[in-house]
Design goal:
By secondary structure, this protein is an all-alpha fold. It is built from 5 helices and no strands. The longest helix has 32 residues.
């Protein structure tokens, strides 16, 4: 339970600070950079490294690569939907669906390439 509280505390502080910076920034696009701060990944790697060692933390960081690539797809999806339909809530829904599908797709492609003959096994 203590670990969950630490994750909540560190992740929450990072997200809150990112939000405050994005709101207070006079340049909203620059504020958007802070809105994309990888708070969850940072806390997940930190806590896993502390509890399970660097090997497991590296696995979490590798998985974060797939999720972050998915985040790129999400951002472009939301941006495109907002430009086309001028409404935020369906745009976010489509973006989240695109994030999940693209992150899983990248993960599956990497796993498949690792199983293919002639591959070294790691990226």
């Amino acid at each position: 339970m203590g670990e969950l509280a630490l994750r909540f505390l560190f992740g929450g502080i990072a997200v809150a600070l990112s939000y405050v910076i994005s709101v207070l920034s006079p340049w909203k696009e620059l504020g958007g950079i802070f809105a994309a701060f990888p708070a969850v990944m940072t806390v997940a790697v930190m806590m896993t490294g502390r509890n399970d060692g660097s090997q497991k933390a590296a696995q979490i960081a590798e998985g974060a690569v797939y999720g972050m690539l998915g985040c790129t797809v999400c951002v472009f999806s939301v941006f495109t939907m907002m430009r086309l339909f001028h409404t935020w809530w369906p745009s976010i829904g489509v973006g989240l669906l695109c994030w999940y599908c693209s992150a899983i797709l990248v993960f599956k492609l990497v796993e498949h390439s690792r199983k293919s003959p002639g591959q070294s096994g790691r990226i």
